[in-house]
Amino acid sequence: MNIKLIASDLDDTLLDDSKVISKLNKEAIWRAKEKGIMMTLATGRMFRSATIFGDELGIDVPLITYQGALIKTAQSNQVIWSKTIELPIAREIISFGRKHGFILQIYVDDMLHVDYINTYVANYASFCMVPALAVRDLFTYIQAPPHKILMVGEPAELYAAWEEAQQIFDDSVYITKSKPYFLEFTNSEANKGKALSFLAESFGIKKEEIMVIGDNYNDMELFKAAGLKIAMGNAVDALKEQADFITANSSENGVAAAIEKFVV
Question: All domains of the chain, ordered by start, with CATH?
Answer without folding.
Answer: 5-82+191-262 (3.40.50.1000), 87-187 (3.30.1240.10)
